């Protein structure tokens, strides 16, 4: 149980690094203002993960106790459809209202956070899928799958950051990555 707990915790750490990595890179390469804009965006968009949070904990428990894994897999599929429906509605509503929302809550100075939110929404929606499926897999004693998936996305995230920002390719800690 200890070994599984470490793997599960490590997977969650790597998941959080995916979003915090942007903050670390921005802190190195830009102003505190830019870091603030990104941080506000990430903070708001992560609220969408509240949708499956309770449901996945319950699904994890039932998955661990299930006698018939195929029957429980069908229940997980139903849960996934519900979470995706609610997540799609929430993401779509946020996408179209985010400028007003950010201005109302944080003020006009943070309006650029709305663009950050809009860019991050598809990835957050995609992670809703994995969060539901992961609750079933982890309940079956396979948290290692999440570790593999989140590690791969972290590598992609790092490479995308270096590709998207030319100042990162040359000049960050003496490294230079050519096009």
How do the strands and helices of this protein lay out in sequence?
Blueprint: H1 2-29, H2 32-45, H3 50-65, H4 69-106, H5 112-139, H6 144-164, H7 166-169, E1 170-172, E2 175-176
Antiparallel strand pairs: 1-2
Helix pairs in contact: 1-2, 1-6, 2-5, 3-4, 3-5, 4-5
Top keywords for this entry?
179 residues, mainly alpha, 83% helix, globular, disordered C terminus
Structure explained in plain terms:
This protein has one domain. 83% of the residues lie in helices and 3% in strands. A two-stranded antiparallel sheet has the order 1-2. The longest helix has 38 residues. The N and C termini lie far apart (46 Å).
Broad shape: globular
Strand content: under 5%
What is the count of structural domains?
A: 1
Pick out the low-confidence regions.
Answer: 171-179
Helix percent reads over 70%
Task: For the largest sheet, list the strands in their spatial order.
Answer: 1-2
Gap from first CA to last CA: 46 Å
Secondary-structure-based class equals: mainly alpha
Radius of gyration, whole Å: 18 Å
| Helix count from the secondary structure assignment | 7
């Amino acid at each position: 149980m200890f070994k599984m707990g470490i793997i599960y915790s490590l997977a969650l750490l790597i998941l959080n690094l995916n979003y915090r990595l942007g903050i670390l890179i921005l802190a190195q390469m830009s102003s505190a203002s830019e870091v603030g804009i990104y941080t506000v965006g990430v903070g708001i968009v992560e609220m969408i993960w509240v949708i499956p949070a309770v449901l996945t904990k319950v699904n994890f428990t039932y998955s661990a106790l299930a006698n018939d894994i195929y029957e429980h897999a069908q229940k997980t599929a139903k849960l996934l459809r519900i979470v995706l429906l609610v997540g799609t509605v929430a993401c779509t509503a946020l996408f179209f209202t985010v400028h007003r929302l950010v201005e109302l809550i944080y003020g006009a100075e943070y309006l650029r956070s709305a663009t950050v939110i809009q860019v991050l929404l598809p990835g957050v929606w995609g992670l809703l899928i994995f969060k539901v499926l992961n609750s079933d897999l982890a309940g079956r004693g396979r948290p290692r799958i999440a570790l593999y998936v989140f590690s791969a996305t972290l590598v992609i995230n790092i490479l995308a950051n270096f590709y998207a920002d030319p100042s990162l390719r040359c000049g960050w800690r003496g490294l230079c990555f050519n096009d």
